[in-house]
């Protein structure tokens, strides 16, 4: 096996992944501490400690290839595990989502991978992202379903945002179809340095929604800051995230700070504005940050002849992108949410 020796010696699964953009022959081996290492594909590596575990944890990054900070965090964790510097207490599946897009330094190659999950790939094979989405769904399914018994499942899909944000780090809580939101997950996020959480109100085609909906996993899309090239991230600003993830995978259980609603800024989706016309624009500048609020009646977007105005005082913008394909989401707007009986 050509890369096995290199992987054992360096632990550098990221470089091996980047050298094999579309596929990698599976291998498995056992570390000195008994942990089973299984490479399923390029960018997909699973660790199973040789002890009784209770949690199945998926950590994904590079679903958007130019979002480097989470890739660097996961790369370091994988190296520490393979080199025996970090001993796992739980099963973990690491995924580098889109290796070719890492190499070209772009969000994606042909199509936004994070719009292709939960079956949205339609089993089509006309571009590499659709093929990758199908394969990643299968790896996650196998990972969760091959462990027997009553186990805890989670999936943290790590990103950085294109724009800055008024709240630098934030998480997206996928639609739970009426199930309560978990305060314990908010406490985990706070420990990662994330105090802003956006509760979705509808089904989605994101990786985190897939794991939440299909497997009941506590799953989030976590935005850790702004996109930067490799080597230009201020890793100090990710220290809390890395420490919290390290504790999650290497400890039997983790204690978080007591829940206090005032620690958080929670929002819920108000509406989605799609681009339906070639002539689509925002009245705000390219530097407008996520969670910028608008006064009721202020212009939010112009789509051909249709103008969208803020309907609620404080309606805030998220993920504005005027350059999406026709028919896709150009803007999400959100309004503040209080902690109530819908949280457990
Ligand atoms: Zn992203």
TrEMBL record:
* Record-listed Zn(2+) binding positions: 64, 67, 159
- Which co-factor is required? Zn(2+)
Pathway, per UniProt? Amino-acid degradation; L-arginine degradation via AST pathway; L-glutamate and succinate from L-arginine: step 5/5
Residues the record marks as active site? 223
The cofactor note reads: Binds 1 zinc ion per subunit.
- Taking every annotated instance into account, which residue ranges of this chain make up the domain AstE/AspA barrel-sandwich hybrid? 263-336
The name this protein carries in UniProt is Succinylglutamate desuccinylase
Give the organism the record lists. Answer: Pseudoalteromonas piscicida
The major lineage groups are: Bacteria, Pseudomonadati, Pseudomonadota, Gammaproteobacteria, Alteromonadales
């Amino acid at each position: 096996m050509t890369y096995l020796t290199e992987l054992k010696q360096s632990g550098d699964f990221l470089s091996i992944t980047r050298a094999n953009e579309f596929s990698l022959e599976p291998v498995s081996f056992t570390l000195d501490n008994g942990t089973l290492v299984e490479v399923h594909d390029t960018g997909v590596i699973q660790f199973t400690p040789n002890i009784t575990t209770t949690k199945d944890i998926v950590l994904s990054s590079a679903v958007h290839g130019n979002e480097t900070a989470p890739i660097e965090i996961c790369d370091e964790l994988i190296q520490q595990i393979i080199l025996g510097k970090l001993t796992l207490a739980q099963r973990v599946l690491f995924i580098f989502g889109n290796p070719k897009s890492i190499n070209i330094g772009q969000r994606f190659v042909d199509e936004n991978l994070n719009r292709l999950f939960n079956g949205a790939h339609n089993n089509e094979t006309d571009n590499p992202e659709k093929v990758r989405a199908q394969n990643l769904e299968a790896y996650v399914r196998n990972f969760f379903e091959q462990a027997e018994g009553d186990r805890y499942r989670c999936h943290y899909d790590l990103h950085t945002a294109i724009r800055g944000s008024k709240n630098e780090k934030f998480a997206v809580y996928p639609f739970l179809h009426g199930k309560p939101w978990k305060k314990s997950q908010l406490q985990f996020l706070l420990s990662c340095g994330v105090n802003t959480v956006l509760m979705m109100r509808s089904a989605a085609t994101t990786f985190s929604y897939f794991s939440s909906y299909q497997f009941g996993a506590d799953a989030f899309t976590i935005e850790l800051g702004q996109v930067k090239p490799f080597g230009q991230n201020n890793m100090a600003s990710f220290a809390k995230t890395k420490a919290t993830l390290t504790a999650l995978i290497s400890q039997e259980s983790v204690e978080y700070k007591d829940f206090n609603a005032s620690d958080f800024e929670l929002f819920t989706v108000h509406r989605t504005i799609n681009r339906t016309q070639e002539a689509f624009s925002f009245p705000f500048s390219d530097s407008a940050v996520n969670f910028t609020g608008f006064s009721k009646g202020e212009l939010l977007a112009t789509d051909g002849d249709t103008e969208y105005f803020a309907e609620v005082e404080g309606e805030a913008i998220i993920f504005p992108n005027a350059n999406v394909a026709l028919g896709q989401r150009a803007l999400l707007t959100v309004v503040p949410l209080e902690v109530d009986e819908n949280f457990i």
